[in-house]
Amino acid sequence: MDNYGIALNSVFHALADPTRRAVIQRLGVGPATVSELAEPFDMALPSFMKHVRVLEDTGLIHSSKTGRTRTCMLDRQNLAAAERWFAEQRAIWASRYDNLDNLLEKLQGQDNES
C-alpha cells in the first residue's frame, strides 16, 4: 500500500466517528480552544482529548498551547487527500453512467429501427 493509501485510511478512520466529524466541521469555521470544542459533547475532557489526539495523529488538525489554553486549528492538507479520492471516485462513476446512457440510447435506437 502506498503512502497515499495509508494516509487516506487514517483520514477515513478519524472521520468515521461523529464526534470527530463535528470537531472538523467546527474547526472549518476557524480555530477553537479544546474547551470550546468539547462544550457540546456530554463526555469528560480526558475522553474528548482522545478524539483530539486521533485527529492530530492523522494530521487533520494541529494545536498549540499558550499557558493553560490549547487551541486547535484545521490542517486542510490531509483532508484534501479524502477530497481527491472522492473526486476520483465521482469521475469513475460519472464515466460509467455516461457509458450506460450511451448504451441505452444505442439500444433504443436499434429498437426503433426494428
UniProtKB/TrEMBL annotation:
Residue ranges of every copy of the HTH arsR-type domain listed in the record: 1-94
Q: Which top-rank group of organisms is this from?
A: Bacteria
**A Pfam cross-reference name:** HTH_20
Q: What SUPFAM superfamilies does this protein map onto?
A: Winged helix' DNA-binding domain (SSF46785)
Q: Which GO terms describe its molecular function?
A: DNA-binding transcription factor activity
Q: Which InterPro entries match?
A: ArsR-like_HTH, HTH_ArsR_DNA-bd_dom, WH-like_DNA-bd_sf, WH_DNA-bd_sf
Which NCBIfam families did the record assign? HTH_metalloreg (NF033788)
Q: What is this protein called?
A: HTH-type transcriptional regulator
Species of origin:
Pandoraea cepalis
Its organism's taxonomic lineage begins at: Bacteria, Pseudomonadati, Pseudomonadota, Betaproteobacteria, Burkholderiales
